[in-house]
Structure formats: C-alpha cells, structure tokens
Amino acid sequence: MLAVGVKPIIILVETQLPENLGSVARVMANFGLSKLRLVKPQAQPLDPKAIALSVGAFDILDDVIITENFEEAVADLNYVFATTAYQRDMIKAYETPKTFVDLIKKPEFQEERFGIVFGPERTGLTNDYMARCHKAITIPVNPDFSSLNLAQAVSVIAYEWFQSQSSQALKACIQLGKTTLATQGQMNGFLNLLEKNLDQTNFWRVSTKKPIMWRNLQNLFTRLDLTQQDLKTLCGVVDALSKSLDKKPD
Ligand code: SAH
After folding, report:
1. How many domains does the chain have?
2. 62 C-alpha to center of ligand 1: Å?
3. Are residues 131 and 16 part of one domain?
4. Tens digit of pLDDT for each residue in 49-81?
5. Which tops the pLDDT comparison, 13 or 172?
6. pTM (two decimals)
7. Based on the domain organization, do 21 and 127 belong to the same domain?
8. What is the pLDDT of residue 188?
9. Which domain covers residue 113, as residue numbers?
10. Ligand 1 within 6 A of CB of 118
11. What is the dihedral of CA 193, 199, 204, 209, to 10 degrees?
12. pLDDT tens across 172-187, in order?
C-alpha cells in the first residue's frame, strides 16, 4: 500500500532536454510518483522526444504544472528539498536519499506536502534556488564523477522513497526451484561426514590448527544458504572421494 498524500512532488527547474523530461516521467511512474512541476522549462513536456522517452507515462507529462518562477511552483508546499551533486558554500543540512526517506517517515512529516527540486542539466541549481529550499539531498557517488544524469538522479531518490513506502517491496529472495533450504540437521550430517573424512586423511596436519581451520570451513558452508539438494551433492562428493582414497594403492 502506498501512503497517499505524502507523495513527493518532483520539481524540475529550467530543464533543457525533452528526453530528460520523458525519462523523468517514466521513472516517476516506475516508482509510484505522479505530480511533476516544471519551472521555466527550456524543453516542452509534449515534445515528441519527451513523449517517446516517457514510454507509458504520458499522463504525467500531460498533467504537468508549468510555472514561470520558483516561488509559484512551491507556494503550496510545506517543505522543499533541493538536490545537488556537490555541497555548496552555504549553511544547509544535507541528506542522502536514505536519510531523506527516514526523515519524511517521521510523524511530523506525515501530513506535509513536500517537493524535491532538480536543477538544469548544464549548471545544476544555482545557489539562489538552493537558498530557497529547506534542506538538500546529495546522492553519494564517486567524488571524482559526482554528477548524475537528471532522470537518473530522480530515479535514485524515487526508488528510495518507493522502497520506504511499499509493503510490496521485494524481499531479497533465493530462487530455490523444486528444492528447499537444508535443515540444520542435514547441515550437521554433512559437516560430521566432512570432518570425519578430513580427520582420516590427516588434513589438519598440525592438530592444534584444527579448531580454527575447522571453524573457517564450517563458516564457509554455513554462509552459503545451501539447499537440501546441494547437501546431498556435497555428501556424495565427500563419499566418492573417501572411497577413491580407500582404493588407492599404498
Ligand atoms: N552540471 C551540473 C549537473 C546537473 S545534473 C552540476 O555540476 O551541478 C542535473 C540535476 O541532477 C542536478 O541539478 C541535481 O538536481 C541532480 N543530480 C545530479 N547528480 C546528483 C547527485 N549526485 N546528487 C543529487 N542530485 C544530483
């Protein structure tokens, strides 16, 4: 469920390329955002290049609000975040996309209308625009190459917002196919078999080294999320190797 009413409004200032308008509309739709405002746009939202890049997100371009100045674009908002690739010589609190979503999840932000402001491709936001925003968001990137494409910057922040809002956010999961994760009992069975065979072949050489070596080996297997099938295979491997060693002539 998306918490309606607290969706950030995306505000693009003096955007130059119609392709970026289209790409921004597309990523907004990807991440459940719908309200786009343009301040003094240099490109038109219904430019064929914008429409082409928006793919299915034409409605966002069609519903766009265009203003001639920044003040008008933010007049009905309670809180405005600037975005910038680099920190300015001014007193301003900087958030990352993550700390930004943590902030707006706080109870005092629940009823607020807030906007995220993105600058023009060539220059970014001027310090004058920055000064009109409450806080800034900087996406942490390689300091030697810190400027993202406009639509990609929107995408990173919209992604973070969506993850924080959506109960349907995909949990990291392993595709297990027809098998299931091994039980601890199965894992112990395999580890006991392995240890017994390593003891028999004198794998440890120096017995005082066994505890640490064995702990490392156990950690190697336990961090792998092994399936029942994986363990059967591994037991088969250990078994086959031990039998071949038994047969080896002295
Ligand atoms: N040449 C400009 C880059 C503008 S990129 C400059 O050096 O500032 C267009 C917009 O994308 C920026 O104004 C900002 O809103 C956003 N953006 C780009 N990289 C970003 C980053 N690392 N963090 C936050 N916003 C970024």
Report:
1. 2
2. 25
3. yes
4. 999 999 989 999 999 999 999 999 999 888 899
5. 13
6. 0.72
7. yes
8. 84
9. 9-166
10. yes
11. 90
12. 455 666 777 777 788 8
Count helices and strands in the chain by DSSP H and E runs: 10, 7
Residue pointed to by tokens 């190697």: 220
Sign of dihedral through CA atoms 84, 90, 92, 98? positive
- Does residue 85 line the site of ligand 1, with CB under 6 A? yes
Within a domain: 53: yes
Indicate whether 150 pLDDT > 70: yes
Between the CA of 153 and the centroid of ligand 1 the distance, in Å, is: 7
Residue 158 CB less than 6 A away from ligand 1:
no
**Of all atoms in ligand 1, which is nearest to the CA of residue 118?**
15
Determine if ligand 1 sits within 6 Å of the CB of residue 23.
no
Q: Rounded distance, CA 111 to CA 130, Å? A: 24
Helix runs in 125-227, H state only:
127-131, 150-165, 184-200, 210-222
Q: What percentage of the chain carries pLDDT values higher than 70?
A: 92
Both tokens of 113, joined, read 């209308």
Q: Determine if ligand 1 sits within 6 Å of the CB of residue 100.
A: no
Which of 84, 88, 125 for a ligand 1 pocket mutation test, highest count of atoms within 8 Å of Cβ?
84
Q: Is the CB of 47 under 6 A from ligand 1?
A: no
